Amino acid sequence: MPGEGSARELEGRVALVTGSARNIGRAIALALADGGAAVAVHARSSEAAAKSVVAEIEARGGRAAWFLAELTDPQAVRRLFDDVRGTFGRLDILVNNAASRADAPIERISLEEWRAITAGILDTAFLCCQAAIPLLAESGRGAIVSIGGVAAHCAIGGRSHVVAAKSGIAGLTRGLSVELADRNITVNIVSPGYINTKRDHIPPHFQDRKVPLGRPGEPEEIAAAVRFLCGPGARYVTGQAIQVAGGWA
Q1: Structure confidence by residue, pLDDT tens digits, 104-113
Q2: Domain map of the chain by residue range?
Q3: Is 146's pLDDT higher than 70?
Q4: Where would you find the membrane-spanning parts of this chain (predicted)?
Q5: Does residue 101 or residue 224 have the better pLDDT?
Q6: 22, 23, 74, 166 — which has fewest CB within 10 A?
C-alpha cells in the first residue's frame, strides 16, 4: 500500500469522497490528494468543515473543491455529480463513505428510524453508484470503494439496522463488481473496526471486544487501504471486502 514518500500514483485522476468533512472521510480525501488526485470534498450541511478539508489539501499542494448535498435525495445526487464534472471535467474514483449511525435495541427501533438508517447508508451508496457509473466508464479505469463496517461480518447487538445496511453495502459491492467489470470499473469495500474518531461515546458493541492488535485503528489506516484500491496496483482487485480491524473479525 502507498505510504509516506510514495509516488503520486493517482496523478490526473479525480475522486469524489462522500461524507469527507471529518473523521475517516477527511483522512481518505487527504490520502487521495497526497496520491495526486483532485478531490471533491462532500458534506451534507457542514460547509465550514468541508472548506477546512479543502484548505488542508491545498496547503499540501493538492487540488480540491467542496460540495454540499443530501445524498438520500436522487435529484440532489444528480446535481452533485453534474457539479463535480463541471468543476473537474471528469470522475475516476467514487468513495462511498457517508453514513448514518445509531445504537438501539431492536424492540425500540421504529420503522421510520429503520428507514432513516438504511437510507443514510445503503440508499446513498446505490444512488451515488448509479450516478457515477457513466463517468467512471468514460475514465476507462474507474474505481468504486465503499466504506462498510466490521459489524457486517460479526455478531453484535444494539445495531441491527446498521448491520443490515452495511451488509447490504457488501452485497451491492459483490453484485456491481461483476456487472461493471466489462466497463473496467473495479468495486470493493473497506470495512473498518473500532477507529479513533471524534465521537460522543464508545459504542456498546466495542466496549467488550478485545482487538488482537491491542489498540483502536486510526483514520489514516483506513485511508491507506482505500488509496491502494483506487490506484494502479489494484486494477485486478474487484469484488473484495478488506477488513481493517486489527484482527477483530
Answers
A1: 888 888 999 9
A2: 14-244
A3: yes
A4: none
A5: 224
A6: 74
